[in-house]
TrEMBL record:
Start and end residues of each Isopenicillin N synthase-like Fe(2+) 2OG dioxygenase domain: 200-242
A Pfam family assignment: DIOX_N
InterPro entries: DIOX_N, IPNS-like_FE2OG_OXY, IPNS-like_sf, Iron_ascorbate_oxido_reductase
Domain of life (superkingdom): Eukaryota
GO MF annotation: an example: metal ion binding
Annotated organism of origin: Rhynchospora tenuis
Protein name: Uncharacterized protein
Length: 255
């Protein structure tokens, strides 16, 4: 049995318990959510868009209409920053369970250790750990590494800065694809990217003895206007396309 920790309504499980030889009933989703699945690499796959493409506005407009989602290349985020981010995230999730649970999310505090809030409405646990950073990472980092918190904070702050800029750039293109003029965008929409509220969710998916029975995250809709997801080589995300009810995989992740 997975030991459960109750923090308000949020369900958590202890990560030490991921060391199962088989998937326990508490984490077994077999037959609970069966849905059609489209080939992640075939012609009906999620669009892959090069941000240097001269027809960018048209491509992004079409992808938004058809999917509400697209994979991007040539986004300009330095691979070195992404490597550092991966290392810091690994460092965080490698901490002992009792340390991470010191900053567990509660109903009143949505930053810290724990899964997505909608997980509480599902009967099973997912095969993942999560950590949310709603404003500054400083408080949690000091709790985890009192003598060595700055490298974590620097990498997280830098990643937040560059993804905020990227989010604004993408939003700008989406608005152009809807027919707004530069002038209208300047007057009414996004101006200073540093003023945009961002929440960063870190997800870790431990190795699973039988992935066909487990689920990484519960089906959900992100609450924000734009989500930028760095997959870090972990494919598996599926997206439900309302038009035909098919779920499309994002296939291979891209840098
Ligand atoms: O990690 C993934 O592939 C999906 C992440 C996600 O959907 C989320 O954090 O909202």
């Amino acid at each position: 049995m997975a030991s459960q920790v109750s923090h308000g309504e949020l369900k958590l499980h202890q990560p030490d318990n991921f060391q199962f030889d088989s998937v326990p009933d508490s984490h077994d989703w077999l037959d609970l959510y069966d849905h059609p699945f489209a080939d992640p690499i075939g012609p009906d796959s999620v669009p892959l868009i090069d941000l240097t493409n001269p027809k960018l506005i048209e491509k992004i407009g079409k992808a938004c209409e058809a999917w509400g989602l697209f994979l991007i290349t040539n986004h300009g985020i330095e691979p070195e920053l992404l490597n550092q981010l991966g290392s810091q995230i690994h460092r965080l999730f490698a901490l002992p369970a009792e340390v991470k649970l010191k900053v567990a999310k509660t109903e009143a505090r949505m930053s810290g250790y724990g899964g997505v809030p909608s997980a509480r409405f599902f009967p099973k646990f997912t095969w993942s750990e999560g950590f949310s950073i709603t404003s500054s990472p400083l408080e949690h980092a000091q709790e985890f590494w009192p003598d060595d918190y700055s490298s974590f904070c620097e990498v997280i702050e830098e990643y937040k800065k560059v993804t905020r800029q990227l989010g604004c750039r993408l939003m700008h293109i989406m608005l152009l694809s809807l027919g707004l003029s530069e002038e209208e965008i300047k007057q009414n929409a996004i101006g200073d990217s540093s003023k945009i509220l961002t929440t960063m969710h870190l997800n870790s998916y431990p190795a699973c003895p039988n992935p066909d029975r487990a689920l990484g995250l519960v089906p959900h809709t992100d609450p924000g206007l734009v989500t930028i997801l760095y997959q870090n080589g972990v494919s598996g995300l599926q997206v439900l396309r309302r038009k035909d009810g098919n779920a499309g995989g994002t296939g291979h992740s891209c840098g």
